[in-house]
Amino acid sequence: MAELPIHKSRRASAEEKAKELEVIRGLVCGKNIVITGGATGLGYSFVNHFLHHGAKQVAIIDVDDDAGKRAKNVVAKSYGNDKIIFINADTSNYSQIYDAFKKLSTMMDSIDIVVNNAGILDERRWEKEISVNIGGMINVATLSMKFMGKDQDKNGGVLVNIGQYFDIKRTAQLPIYTATKYAIIGLSQSLGSQFHYDKTGVRVIALCPGLTETALTIDSPNRLLSRVMKADFVKNLEELSIQTPFVVSEGLMTILKSAESGSCWVVDNGKAPFEIITPNYKILKRRFKNNYPAVVNNEKTRGRPIIDLSDNMKTGLMSCA
User: Fold this and answer.
1) Which Gene Ontology MF annotations are present (predicted)?
2) Do 117 and 241 fall into the same domain?
3) Which residue, of 20, 28, 96, 133, has the fewest CB within 10 Å?
4) Is residue 308 in some structural domain?
5) How much is the pLDDT for 20?
């Protein structure tokens, strides 16, 4: 995937920040929000940010019953009992999640925004990891389209799928977790296509945070495929900057006001969010002739070597980020 060019700009004035907050509040105020995995970590931060910006109600769906009840009680003290709902359900279990959405559709006058956040990191139990991080995300995403879609006589809405922003060189010890998070990008781009948006009115966005300080991150060295990997993994983590869930939640509020359906956004290193563009596979072809890669000429154009590609080569290797 390629990053869009980032242009440095002056720091926003107090007036500009106030205008941005007004726009965000207009998008969130009076809306009903559903957040999976909202009892702790990043999901819990999302809960508080939506309520802070005037959400009508926020529903937490979480597999951890004790943590969910604690989160509900804490939030209720700050915003009131009528603002928060907790439902205990496992996202990887379709019948449980369907029942949760059905119950919420009767408790709320509408479901307007769904943050598809629930996930685990446990390479040793990779079957469960795939079940939650891919199966669970698909369950929630498809049900969100059903319970928000205009084709189902609903009002449309926003679905935010939470992925991960990776430096593969530093996360080589997490092959299964990495694979599950890459899947979220494909899911979001497909469901966010114009075809689906025109039919459902649901805007689908992928949000991929960089390294974020949560219990999942802190415990990750103990969840690798092999203990032998731990030293290298910890060393790699120490070289990376870590951000707080608060920063990611603030970034999501900004993304909601401008992100197009099918787009992929990153919040990394505590900085402002930016969009990632996935190149078309056709421009990523590397062509071969007689088992040799294309010849690179010494001649340069604008400082770059010219790669001689034969037009009659019909075979090649294709890769897609």
Assistant:
1) 15-hydroxyicosatetraenoate dehydrogenase activity; 15-hydroxyprostaglandin dehydrogenase (NAD+) activity
2) yes
3) 20
4) yes
5) 67
Q: Which candidate, 192, 194, 195, places its Cα nearest to that of 144?
A: 192
CA distances from 26 to 29, 53, 54 (A): 5, 9, 9
Token code pair at residue 38? 């909202």
How many domains in the chain?
Answer: 2
**Nearest alpha carbon to residue 129 among 175, 195, 167, 190:** 175
* Pairwise CA distance, residues 308 & 67, whole Å: 59
Q: For residue 53, which phi and psi values (nearest 5 degrees)?
A: -90, 10
Same domain, 136 and 56: yes
Contact assessment for residue 60 and residue 85, using Cβ atoms and an 8 Å cutoff = yes
Confidence of residue 319 (pLDDT cuts 50, 70, 90): very low
Specify whether 128 is located in the same domain as 250: yes
Nearest to 42 by CA among 93, 115, 104: 115
- Alpha-carbon distance of 144 to 179, in angstroms, equals 23
Q: Measured between alpha carbons, how far is 121 from 214 in angstroms, rounded to an integer?
A: 12
Amino acid at 143: L
**Pair (237, 313) in one structural domain:** no
The pTM (predicted TM-score) of the whole model is 0.82
**In terms of Cα–Cα distance, which of 259, 250, 280, 135 is closest to 205?**
259
CA dihedral 187, 212, 59, 70 (to 10 degrees): 140
Residue 170 shares a structural domain with residue 298: no
**Residue 16, C-beta contacts closer than 8 angstroms, at least 6 positions apart:** none
Q: Do 263 and 206 form a contact (C-beta atoms < 8 A)?
A: yes
Structural domain that includes position 300? 289-320
Q: At what angle do helices 245-256 and 41-52 cross, to 10 degrees?
A: 50
Note the pLDDT tens digit of each residue in 13-40. Answer: 777 667 767 777 778 999 999 999 999 9
> What Rg, from alpha-carbon coordinates, does the chain have?
22
pLDDT tens profile 157-199: 999 999 998 777 777 788 899 999 999 999 999 999 999 999 9
Total length of the chain: 321
